[in-house]
């Protein structure tokens, strides 16, 4: 049963065909392509695995923190009507806040990875940014890495005040965005220790490229009603939610990002352009006995499948698109 059944052409010739060839028995075969959409839960497993592998290669043997920037409910209307503008503002403001806090605290080079999530556990619209930050900083003048504190990075209340002020200022200056009449005085920013970073990255990767609702969370589709389950954080229990088909489709589709908008962005030492500096830091920590240098991400393997005739490996030799 396909949870995202609005993709009527999933695994049909309407999406195109892949041509497969077996060098052992010279068999030829054609298979319909998947949709390939970045929000489709069926098509993005390899993309998710590749992203996680690249992030693992960047990990340092230091403590990591996850900072979560949230918006109040009054601004969710802007996320429905102007998602590209609002989400771009969120990334720009969050990065400026963290860069300024790092500059005030130590003045060295830091880095972080920001990931946009648009839903709550119930899959309602709830845009927020998760930011993974390593504790510590690099002093370029001395080519030295300074270890950060284990249980403290930044004051969450101070982050929230600056986050609120800069978001409001950015929205006021944006020609496509309009502030609502009322807004709460206090906003929420969470800053917590998340160990060595890998568990947090795995958590973020779950919804990064594979849609907002996995197939296995769809309980039933009958009588024009869709029932799905979700994990309630406060009670730590599984709950279910039933919606009419049309409302369920809208619930899912409101989380589809505008074309070209990046959901995940790297900054500072974790940016792709900082590979040389990051490698230098890893080598320094390796010399102090605190690091086993992570391997580079494995190259993306060629697509293969088992030959239905001789059970040897077949290779994809071409793609045919409709029209």
* Low-confidence blocks of residues: 1-10, 291-295
Largest sheet: 5 strands, antiparallel
Helix/strand order, N-terminal first:
EEHEHHEEEEHEHEEEHEHEE
β content, as a range? 25-35%
Morphology call: globular
**Helix/strand structural class:** alpha+beta
Give an account of the 3D structure:
There is one protein chain. 25% of the residues are buried. This protein folds into 3 domains: 13-42 and 294-323, no CATH class; 60-212 and 258-293, Alpha-Beta Plaits (2-Layer Sandwich), CATH 3.30.70; 215-254. The protein has helices at 45-58, 76-81, 83-105, 156-173, 198-205, 245-253, 275-287, and strands at residues 17-21, 28-32, 64-70, 111-119, 125-134, 136-139, 144-147, 189-193, 218-222, 225-232, 237-244, 264-268, 304-306, 313-320. 28% of the residues lie in helices and 27% in strands. Helix 1 runs antiparallel to helix 5. A hairpin with a 2-residue loop joins strand 9 and strand 10. The strands form 4 sheets. It has a 5-stranded antiparallel sheet with strand order 8-3-5-4-12, sandwiched between helices. The protein is globular. With 323 residues, the chain is an alpha+beta fold.
Keywords:
Zn_Tnp; 323 residues; transposase activity; Transposase_32; five-stranded antiparallel sheet; alpha+beta; 7 helices; globular; four-stranded antiparallel sheet
Question: In summary, what is this structure?
Answer:
This is IS91 family transposase. Residues 11-71 form the Transposase zinc-binding domain. The chain has 323 residues and is an alpha+beta fold.
């Amino acid at each position: 049963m396909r949870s995202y059944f609005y993709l009527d052409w999933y695994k049909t010739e309407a999406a195109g065909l892949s041509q497969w060839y077996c060098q052992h028995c010279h068999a030829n075969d054609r298979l319909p392509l998947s949709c390939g959409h970045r929000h489709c839960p069926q098509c993005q497993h390899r993309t998710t695995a590749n992203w996680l592998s690249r992030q693992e290669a960047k990990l340092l043997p230091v403590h990591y923190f996850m900072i979560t920037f949230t918006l109040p409910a009054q601004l969710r209307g802007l996320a429905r009507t102007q998602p590209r503008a609002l989400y771009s503002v969120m990334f720009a403001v969050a990065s400026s806040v963290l860069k300024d806090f790092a500059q005030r605290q130590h003045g060295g080079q830091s880095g972080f990875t920001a990931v946009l999530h648009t839903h709550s556990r119930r899959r309602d619209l709830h845009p927020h940014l998760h930011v993974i930050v390593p504790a510590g900083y690099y002093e370029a003048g001395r080519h030295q890495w300074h270890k950060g504190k284990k249980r403290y990075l930044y004051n969450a209340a101070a982050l929230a005040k600056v986050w609120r002020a800069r978001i409001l200022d950015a929205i006021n200056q944006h020609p496509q965005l309009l502030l609502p009449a009322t807004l709460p005085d206090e906003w929420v920013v969470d800053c917590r220790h998340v160990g060595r970073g890998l568990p947090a990255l795995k958590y973020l990767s779950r919804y990064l490229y594979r849609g907002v609702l996995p197939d296995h969370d769809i309980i039933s589709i009958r009588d024009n009603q869709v029932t799905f389950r979700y994990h309630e954080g406060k009670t730590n229990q599984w709950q279910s939610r039933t919606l009419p088909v049309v409302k369920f489709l809208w619930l899912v589709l409101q989380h589809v990002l505008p074309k070209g908008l990046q959901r995940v962005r790297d900054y500072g030492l974790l940016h792709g352009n900082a590979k040389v500096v990051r490698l230098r830091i890893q080598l320094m920590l390796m010399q102090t006995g605190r690091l086993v240098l992570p391997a580079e991400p494995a190259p993306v393997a060629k697509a293969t499948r088992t030959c239905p005739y001789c059970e040897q490996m077949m290779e994809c030799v071409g793609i045919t698109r409709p029209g």
